[in-house]
Every structure is written in C-alpha cells, then in structure tokens.
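Holo model, fe (ii) ion. Inputs:
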Amino acid sequence: MDTRYDYQDTDQDLALSVDDVVDDIDLGEPDEPLDEAAYRLWRKAVTFGTWNPADIDLSRDREQFLSLERPLQVYLEHFCGAFYNAEENVAKVFCPWVMSVSTTWQQAYLSTQLMEEFKHTDFFARYFKEVLGIEKPTRALSNPVHESLVDRAETLLTSYRSGSDDRTLHLVEAFTHYQGIIEGVQANAGYQIFLAVFASKGMLPGLAEGFRSIQRDEGRHVGFGMQLLRHYAHQNPLYAERIRAVYNEYLPLIQVRYGVPLTVNGEVFDPPAEERGRERLMKLYERRLKDIFS
Ligand SMILES: [Fe+2]
Ligand SMILES: [Fe+2]
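Output:
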C-alpha cells in the first residue's frame, strides 16, 4: 500500500512552526522571583483558563475523519491516543507536584494545572467518542517516559512526608521529568506535528480549536516549570547537574517514538512525511535547556 503523502515540507516551515509554539511559553523575566511568577500565573489561570471542552463543535471533524484515507485515519487515532493517554496519566498522578512546592501561591498555581490536565483528558475523551467513534485508544504504544511518572510521583510523596533533606532534589527531578521533558519537549513537538500534518491544510477544525486552548494552558505549565528549574539550577550546582542528567537520560527514550511505521492487523503504515518528529523534538530539547541555563 502506498502510504506517501503529496506534501513538500521545508526548513522554513519547520523553523516557523517551532517559533510559533515556543513563543507561547509563558516564561517570565530572568529576575522574576519564583513566588511572583506563581502568583502571576495563578491570576492568569483563573482569568483565562476557563474554556470548556464541551463547547467545541466536533461535527466537521467527524465528517472529515470518515473521508480521510486509511493511513491518515490510522495516524490520527495513534496521534490522539498518545495525547489522550498522556493527559489522563498525568492528571491522575499530579497531586504530589501540587503538595511538594513550598508556598501557597506555588500550590495555588499548580492546582489550576491539575484541573487543566483533567480538562484536556475530557477533550480527548470527547474526541475519541464523537470523532473517531470509539471509547478509548485501541492501541497504546509503550511510552517509558510516561510510564515512569508513577514512580516519580511516589518518590515525591515519600520525600514530602518524611521531610528528608533531598526533598528539593526530588522536586527538581520531578519538574524536569514532567514539565521539562514530557510537556516542554514531547507535547510541544506533538502540537507542531498536528499543525504540519493537519491544521496547516485546514483540516480538523475542532481538534485545532481544542489544541489552541490546550496550548494556552500548556504555555503556563511549561512556563512555570522552566521558571522553577531555572530558580533551583541557579541556587545550587547539584540541582543544575541533576536537571542535565535527567534530560540526558530521557533523550533516547523520547527520540524512538517518531518516524516509526504503525502496524495495524498486519498492515504497515508509514507516518506522514511532514511529521519530522525527531527534528522538531531536538529543536525543542535544545530550546528548553537554553530556557533553564542561559
Ligand atoms: Fe495537558
Ligand atoms: Fe500540562
């Protein structure tokens, strides 16, 4: 089966979409104290984070999905399934992140993130049911970066309860893992892929609207994450070293998820040529390290 797509991607397109997404990150000035950043983002979240997943019209997406060629249908289900699983998994284990930061406004801000991750889950639950016509993703690709998040949450909770000296170190590791890598690199690469494969061609307007709202929320999530990591990296070289070590550890695990053919009932489908996942991922990876260390 021919799974190639008639689309010419260019370096300029790649660079533009990277900047479009990166500029959405709500990162404060380098001298902004962490608690002021948390209060600023808390205020923003309660004012602007009020979109409702139930209000998005998905009827045109359903029509378009039914008329897509089979390889793109398979790709869309796989792509949305990765987001659905990721949003739901994190929403269910995020409480220790909220509890482990040290001040009222940092906790208040992170409580908005907890609710927003459930809101993103709600959007994808609707998308599966109403557009793809199934309750849940049927093929869950293994994602070791996500699967190890449960252990990260356990460690965070244990060190929070014990009040041990390495509490801050575990907090830094947990923020690097979740806000730094999963949200700041993996999810951001996903938004760009959606733009390149579907939205830039005017396809799937409901999913595009959902992603625009999700991305605005994620701009705050990644922005606060980067600000917290920057704060601790400058406070202690041990924390800076751990942040770099966690980024290095996960890089090979996030790279392997792109450019791989999908096999469904013995049929093999190549990903669309414009995915260019590894390139997008590497640009974001470098950008995040710059956000923290420059
Ligand atoms: Fe999310
Ligand atoms: Fe998020």
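The beta strands are 262-264, 267-269. Residues 176 and 246 are 7 Å apart (CA to CA).
Archived with the compound record.
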